[in-house]
């Protein structure tokens, strides 16, 4: 016979599993949820200066990277665990998996543990669309989506929900990926055009999104492909040695970033001199500096993903726990009645004898 | 009606709850388990140079600290989340709570999530005793245990299991804490003496363990209390501004540490000049440098807790999962059949209509 102990409320941490996260998405609607997450991200970018910021803590290996991305606003602390293993896809695994946590700064006790593979896809797309709202040319209606992997449908629907996108032009080096994305987007209320080349994909597009996964210096967009007046949303250049744009494009663009110390290491701008001027997005959002200032300007959002975006997404999920009940209570923390009596708690959990 | 999705094996991460951890301790025996964890820690200290090491990543607030402690041996990656909030005790909360994770470096996929409040208590005591095995005077049989909080019983029993301790002399500024520890240790096969002063506690003791929790420069041991030949096991000085020993003691001692860059910030030696000589324990364990070299020498283990010890403890727990079955399978990772089809996985999880 085994004695069981009933954990106290303080010992239980709400846990959002992948299944619960998917139920949450469906109960809210994927576009509405990305709109909501974008609002949380925008609100947190507005109070950028109140956050502890640090470049992510990375552990590199020859085949990938494992990272911890912590931040805090003084009331809540959050971090995300995330890996990046481009070769995983060939083995039937996700390139990126993630989970995250929020904790009370006052007590240090976790208040939410959540899957973040799905949530990262949502927050990455929400961030791109929130930024495009500020930087894309007025009336932008068509996006070239180059790279049709796991992030492509989310990018498309976030741009639809937040920027009013009407048409997406898909291209991937692997036609099966394009077919997958086209199939998934077929009934989502947006025109979908499958393209046979990147040149075809960018025809008539005001927003160019690149999201490919190779861990190498690649040139997904060459200089002559990029005309004046477009907004480039560069998602896939997100670790040292991984870029997607020809350097010449960067020199023709006004470059907007999340957190310069991290982007200089991980983003497209690792190709440039360390003093090359960039604009921090939070300053555009708060009105300190202009975003797009002319119709002919090329704006480039050199996105690498920053801890505050995860923090915002976790806040969004946490704020929906009570109304939806879509979580488990996880017995994660030992919390004896007398905090000094951890050993006594252990002893009282001993199996009954006889 | 809600559709449920059955996660693939790859999506499920073994999770050891507090209840399962306590069952694991009882199925193995607390002393045997600390002996086992000490063996894993000692084995990992022997291959110290094969680990990625970094000082912990700390987020400080006026009331406490939240830390992430990552490390990797190239095959497994591990990290611990841990808080330190001395004021928590007054609010009925634990000063320290923790959980940890192991992941495959090859894929980035987590392979174990575990509570670590209980496990940290076990690994801290196991580390102290493993180190005392090398540094305490021969035939040491009596320990003064100053500070009778949550760690005190574990320290005592680890020293009994690993160093042959016969008698513990308890002292705490709060007699209720001493009474609690004495009660818990009463039937554990060791002589327990409750003392009314620190001076009384150290009478006849060869090992002096300090483990108090105030976040301030304190002087738990004064210089004249420490005679020659003893081993001091200083646990409680473990963050900036928190020390337990009079500086004069440090100057009379040979000081042994886990990882100097972290200990200089957090340990007793934050009181000393940055170039004050210290010895790394892994070099003692591998025989590169001597440990205790004379009967009159004062040895001081300035312990702050290092990521490799958590890594070792998590390895120990993971190696026992299959034989004990003491875990849940946690739906933590989204793992679609086609890794590029995260959106399709989400769509297929939609609630059935009608």
UniProtKB/TrEMBL annotation, chains A, B:
Enzyme type, top EC level: lyase
Keywords for this protein: Lyase
GO MF terms, alphabetically ordered: ornithine cyclodeaminase activity; oxidoreductase activity
Keyword Lyase listed: yes
SUPFAM superfamilies assigned: NAD(P)-binding Rossmann-fold domains (SSF51735)
Pfam families recorded: OCD_Mu_crystall (PF02423)
EC code(s) of this entry: 4.3.1.12
Record keyword Lyase present: yes
Xref: PANTHER family: KETIMINE REDUCTASE MU-CRYSTALLIN
Record family assignment: Belongs to the ornithine cyclodeaminase/mu-crystallin family.
Protein's name according to its UniProt entry: Ornithine cyclodeaminase
Organism: Ruegeria pomeroyi (strain ATCC 700808 / DSM 15171 / DSS-3)
